[in-house]
Structure formats: structure tokens, C-alpha cells
Amino acid sequence: MTEFGFIEQIHTRFASLPDNGFEGIGDDCAVLPLGGGESLVFTADLLTEGVHFLRAATTPRELGGKSLAVNLSDVAAMGARPVATLLSIALPADAAGAWAAEFMEGYRELSETFGTTLIGGDTTRSESGITINVTAIGRAPSANLKRRSDARPGDVIFAAGELGASGAGLRDILAGHCDTPLAAVHRNPQPQVAEGLWFGTRQEVHAMMDLSDGLASDLRHILDRSGVGAEVEVERIPVAPGADVRTAACAGEDYKLLLTAAPEAAERLAAEFAARFGSPLHPIGRITAAPGLVWLRNGKPEPLEWQGFEHY
Ligand SMILES: Nc1ncnc2c1ncn2[C@@H]1O[C@H](COP(=O)(O)OP(=O)(O)OP(=O)(O)O)[C@@H](O)[C@H]1O
Ligand SMILES: Cc1ncc(C[n+]2csc(CCOP(=O)(O)O)c2C)c(N)n1
Ligand SMILES: [Mg+2]
């Protein structure tokens, strides 16, 4: 079974149960309208030793920051402001002392940076490696929420930053070079919280998500949920220095925002983004009515078998 096949099975299994007012499985966050035009959003992300990180290749402080960052990125992807988190952590006995204290310092530092508070969680001993689960809660005016399901044919597709640095950094780490600048990028993702909030206020932004598994699979989630297709110009994918285009499209963990916007407003959106954030918004293609993801090189379709990260 594939990761996404399993999620689909879970979704189907619970479809007949009452939703209790929640918009559930399928987006970066679940949504609970509060009334008064406000909503809460909820997301959970797990990091487990050997799959998400190597203990010898990260400081506990960095891992504390990354555990929080990947969750804040999912809140940002909804156009919401992260407000609080819960942290559940399973630690082997040899990581329960100084390692855990440093981990918490990294988690606290990033919480302070983004104005979130830690409101609970759980702590247990582990017999096999470190596992960390974070639940993040965000808040937004309901009208600002951006979903994966709102892309429309003709929309311009944007990436809100360069891609591939994290994947290139992981390559360094797996080769035993943990002290390169790219390896540091991999261990210290910066969630686009201010950017996500700003996109939330822009009516011309239709669909949004964060890039965790890689453009090649993440964009497909927008396409599937919106019932549309896309053409992506390979030459326009913003490749971070030190990475290559395939890494940029497939390796994942860049935690940059991916969004679609109305074509008539796209140029102005990009100009205002650049003026506000001091970095470009990269147009990489467009949404089509015909289903499927088509990679274009020199304007011609190219049959690339590119895939993002999948757990199974
Ligand atoms: N075990 C699970 N039970 C219920 N829902 C799940 C489970 N695993 C994933 N989901 C839901 O499935 C959807 C897709 O999950 P996915 O993990 O791909 O999203 P994501 O959190 O944006 O990505 P990433 O984990 O790479 O950050 C989300 O709405 C998520 O909440
Ligand atoms: C040791 C080691 N091996 C591989 C990877 C790569 N990796 C793990 S999970 C993931 C996608 C996002 O995670 P998720 O979908 O679980 O949120 C990626 C790209 C890594 N970081 N460390
Ligand atoms: Mg996400």
C-alpha cells in the first residue's frame, strides 16, 4: 500500500461519521469555523529517527526547531496565523537528559519567533529511537483560508521561494558532510508564516499548500482536489544554488508555499510580493482544464517520471 492510498482508505472509513462541524482530512489543516467569521485550523506532523533525521547528523536544538517549523508551515499554507502547539515526544533513556533540554530550547526559540505557545502534549520512553509529534493550531478570518481545492483553469502557478536546497543538503548529510551550508538549510527550514498570512488576505490567490514532499507530488494534490490539470515549465522551476532541477522538483522538505492565482492579477501579486518580502514569487506554469500534470521544456511536453517523497 502507498502512503496516499492508506490516507484515502482512512478518509473513506470515517466518511460516514458525523463531522461535528469540522472540514477534515485532505488539506494542509483541518478547519473549524468558530462563528463570527473566524476559524481555527489544526494540523499534525510526525518526525521519526532514521526516517526524518539522523540523530548523529543534527543538533537537538535544530531538531526542536524543525519539528515545530514543519507544522507552522502547514498552518501558513492555509493563510492562517499559528497560535499554539501540542508536543508529544517518545525518547530513549539516553536522550532524556541534556539532549531533551536542548531540543526543548530549539522548540522554544522558534515558538518565540512566531508567537506560538505550547499548551500540552505527552512524554514517554521509547525502546527504538526518537519520535516527535507536533499538533499545531492556527487562527484566521474564514474568508482568508486557502485550500488545495480552489485552483481554477487559467490560474498562474507560483512557488514562493527557491527549491532543492533541502534535498541537496540531505544529499550532503547522507554522504557524511554535515557541516555544509546546504546541510544547515535542510536542518533549519524557515516556515513562510508572514508570507502565508499575506497570501491569505489576497482574493486573487485561489489554492495554496506548502511544499513538503516536493513539487512533483504536492502539485498533484492541488490538481486532484481542484479537479484540474497543470502545465509546468521545467526551465521556470526556481532551483536553489547547489541543487539541480530534479532535486528541486522531487526531493521535498523545502517548506516553501505553492499557490495558484488569477491570471489577470498575477503580475501585480508577484510585484507586490517582491516589494514586501524582498524575494521573487516564481511563476512556474498554469492550471489547465484538462486533467494531468504536464512538464514542458522549450514549450514542448516532456515525459518525465518525476515523483516526490513517499513513505511507502
Ligand atoms: N493517519 C492519518 N489519519 C488521519 N488523517 C491523516 C493521516 N495521515 C494524513 N492525514 C491527512 O491526510 C491529508 C494529507 O496528509 P499529508 O501528510 O500529505 O499532508 P501534509 O501534512 O500537508 O504533508 P506533510 O506530512 O508532508 O507535511 C492531510 O489532511 C492529513 O491531515
Ligand atoms: C534520514 C533521512 N532520510 C530521508 C529524509 C527525506 N525525507 C524524510 S520525510 C520527507 C518528506 C516530508 O515528511 P512527511 O511527509 O513525513 O511530513 C523527506 C523528503 C530525511 N529528511 N532524513
Ligand atoms: Mg502541507
TrEMBL record:
Domain PurM-like N-terminal: 26-139
Highest taxon listed in the record's lineage: Bacteria
Acetylation in keyword set: no
Protein's pathway: Cofactor biosynthesis; thiamine diphosphate biosynthesis; thiamine diphosphate from thiamine phosphate: step 1/1
Keyword Kinase assigned: yes
Annotated Mg(2+) 5 binding sites: 213
Signal peptide: none
Residues the entry annotates as binding ATP: 121-122, 147, 212
SUPFAM superfamilies: PurM C-terminal domain-like (SSF56042), PurM N-terminal domain-like (SSF55326)
Catalyzed reactions: thiamine phosphate + ATP = thiamine diphosphate + ADP
Enzyme Commission number(s) from the entry: 2.7.4.16
Annotated Mg(2+) 1 binding sites: 45, 122
Other facts noted in the record for this chain: Reaction mechanism of ThiL seems to utilize a direct, inline transfer of the gamma-phosphate of ATP to TMP rather than a phosphorylated enzyme intermediate.
Described purpose of this protein according to its UniProt entry: Catalyzes the ATP-dependent phosphorylation of thiamine-monophosphate (TMP) to form thiamine-pyrophosphate (TPP), the active form of vitamin B1.
Identification of the protein by name: Thiamine-monophosphate kinase
Organism the protein comes from: Alistipes intestinihominis
